[in-house]
Amino acid sequence: MRSVLAVCLALCLAACGGHPGLQSSSSSLECAPYAREISGLQLYGDAASWWDQADGRYAKASQPVPGGVLVLRRSGRLPYGHVAVVRSQRSPREITVDQANWVHHRVTLGEPVVDVSDANDWSQIRVWWQPAGAMGATTYPAYGFIAP
Question: 36: domain range?
Answer without folding.
Answer: 21-146
